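Supplementary Methods S3. Complex input for the adenosine-5'-triphosphate-bound model.
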Amino acid sequence: MTLSVDIRHRLGAFSLEATFTSDGGVTALFGRSGSGKTSIIRIIAGLIRPDHGRVSLDDSVLADTGRQVFVPRHRRRFGYVFQEARLFPHLSVRQNLSYGRWFAPRNERSESFDGVVDLLGIAALLDRRPAKLSGGEKQRVAIGRALLSSPRLLLMDEPLAALDEARKAEILPYLERLRDETKIPIIYVSHSIAEVARLANRVVVMRDGKVEAIGPALDIFSQLSGPLAIDRREAGVLLEGRVEHMEDRHRLTVVALKAAKLFVPGQATSLGKTVRVHIPARDVMLATARPEGLSALNILEGEVRDISAAADGTVEVKVDCGGDIVLARITQFSAERLGLRVGLPVHAVIKTVALEQ
Ligand SMILES: Nc1ncnc2c1ncn2[C@@H]1O[C@H](COP(=O)(O)OP(=O)(O)OP(=O)(O)O)[C@@H](O)[C@H]1O
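Predicted complex, serialized as structure tokens:
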């Protein structure tokens, strides 16, 4: 299923210009506040009629200003999940879910009620009213309601933004199942790198109404001064590895990268599984000799590949650790003191690594 967006639109002083395609899986629209993510979702949804351009899903044209085509929102058969669950307070969870189902034409009901309830782990909640649910549970019901309308596409606009970290962590595995077990393409708006890194197959980076970069999540989140320079504090790399060992006593997972191994806190995974780990550049220190007596678990040997200076007095250093590139953000002063240059052998001391599963 391919969603294709090629539009131009003006909203007051703001001009939006976006061309991208999404070929199923999760496509994240990523960017800072005000970059135009929600406006694009609204155009895809049919809530905004674009000034110029075309939106299509496979052969079905949803909007084409050249041919005066505009399919209204209720005929697009898309599912929506917003920041707040927006459930009907006077209906039980079961009735809220059935309401979603009512929108799917009988012969096109691809999702079964029990299947969705099981996928989202909401069987125990069916007879409750929304007021008796936690924020995370409400959001799972909202996702279920959207799924039961058997949508051709699921539009999710910051679905986790209103939740605290614990609730987010509770929902993320369900979103992964949704991605892996249903065939419904998802457009996912978020400005959280951690969320996007974990869920998205493809990332469209927006800046000031324009598409700044587009590509697989792994590529996008590993760029040195690219899109993540949106907020330099968030620069970092996303690496892929395999779970080699799980250490029960200390609740650690050992992830084998191309050459190096990483100790990552947490254990919610299975042996042999391919996982992604996120290493923020600000949490990587560099040393020219192997440091000792440090609390950091991960000290990787590598070689400096690239050094780029930023206006704020910091430098970003790309270190090749046996085929995996780790990014370190250190001060210009430290870089000079260490005598960093391309080709120099260094040790990358990694303070935090997060498993993105
Ligand atoms: N109806 C409108 N009229 C005028 N300007 C608008 C309108 N709707 C949105 N804008 C402007 O368009 C820009 C993009 O807004 P949009 O909500 O799409 O951004 P966003 O990336 O989703 O931001 P956030 O992450 O804060 O939700 C903003 O500057 C906003 O003020």
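The pocket of adenosine-5'-triphosphate is lined by residues 11-12, 14, 31, 33-39, 191 (CB under 6 Å). The chain has eight helices and 21 strands.
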